[in-house]
Amino acid sequence: MPEDASRLAILKALGDNTRYAIYLELARSARPRSTGEIAEALDLHPNTVRPHLERMRDVGILEQQVDNTGAVGRPQHRYSLVPDAPSLGLEPPVFPMLARMLVRMGALAGVATAEAVDAGREQGVADASGFDPSTPCEEALMAQLDLLGFDPEIEGADGKVTVAFTHCPFRELAQANPDLVCGLHRGMVEGLVDTLGGARVDDFQSLVGRTPCQVDLVPEPVALTPGPEPR
């Protein structure tokens, strides 16, 4: 996979249902597959499949081979996953299962929402370290939420910025244990925003209160260093 292939671009590419289906079809195949073979397996027209193959190739998920057997006509292209392609969707469901067990344990242990927020805040602080300190917190928050699969949308008015989470990758867990899961999410958001500065979380509305969930940010004045007192 090319070194400049962005992990975020790969995740976005695989977020499309058709491309994900193509990915699974090629991952399960013992040999490279042609456009026609992929289209037939997925009950799609080849013209529908081609642009998806090109998009996946552009972000570094697929490699293309030219099958020129000397026959008259245009050479046939065959596609396969690159050697270090992500195993998304094929790995055993260990992490979702582990997440369910840990959330269940937290609920049984009586972990309070405030404790979940504190744990999430630690992760948010760690996430903030991956951004340049000069990055506006709204920009960093959007990038981080997008990476995690929340499909965020942003709008602003009257000095307030609202970021809505149009998709929640933890929805099933959050519906069963909103205090813990939404508390963790709130802490992650607050930790990242507070660490980068320039804004603060004014309100965090989870799926208990509204759909989609959202967070409201308001500008936070930058603290000025006091000058010398007049003589």
Percentage beta strand: 15-25%
The global form is: elongated
Q: List how many beta strands DSSP finds.
A: 7
Give the strand order, joined by hyphens, for the main sheet: 4-5-7-6
CATH topology of the largest domain: Muramoyl-pentapeptide Carboxypeptidase, domain 2
**Distance N to C terminus:** 65 Å
Mean model confidence by pLDDT: 82
Helix content: 40-55%
Radius of gyration: 23 Å
Q: Helix segment count?
A: 9
CATH top level assignment of the largest domain? Alpha Beta
For the record, the count of structural domains works out to 2
CATH superfamily of the largest domain: Trafficking protein particle complex subunit 3
Main sheet attributes: strand count, strand direction, barrel closure: 4 strands, antiparallel
From the coordinates shown, what is the CATH architecture of the largest domain?
Answer: 2-Layer Sandwich
Which regions have little confidence, pLDDT < 50, spanning 5+ residues? Answer: 1-5
Helix/strand structural class: alpha+beta
Order of helices and strands: HHEHHEEHHHEEHHEE
Structure description:
- With 231 residues, the chain is α+β, with helices and mostly antiparallel strands.
- The chain folds into two domains: 7-81, Orthogonal Bundle (Arc Repressor Mutant, subunit A); 94-219, Muramoyl-pentapeptide Carboxypeptidase, domain 2 (2-Layer Sandwich).
- Helix content is 47%, strand content 17%.
- The protein has nine helices and seven strands.
- The strands form two sheets. It has a four-stranded antiparallel β-sheet with strand order 4-5-7-6, covered by helices on one side.
- A hairpin with an 8-residue loop joins strand 2 and strand 3.
- Helix 3 (35-42) crosses helix 4, helix 6 (113-128) runs parallel beside helix 9 and helix 7 runs antiparallel to helix 9.
- The protein is elongated.
- The protein starts with 6 loop residues before the first helix and ends in a 12-residue tail after the last strand.
- The relative contact order is 0.11.
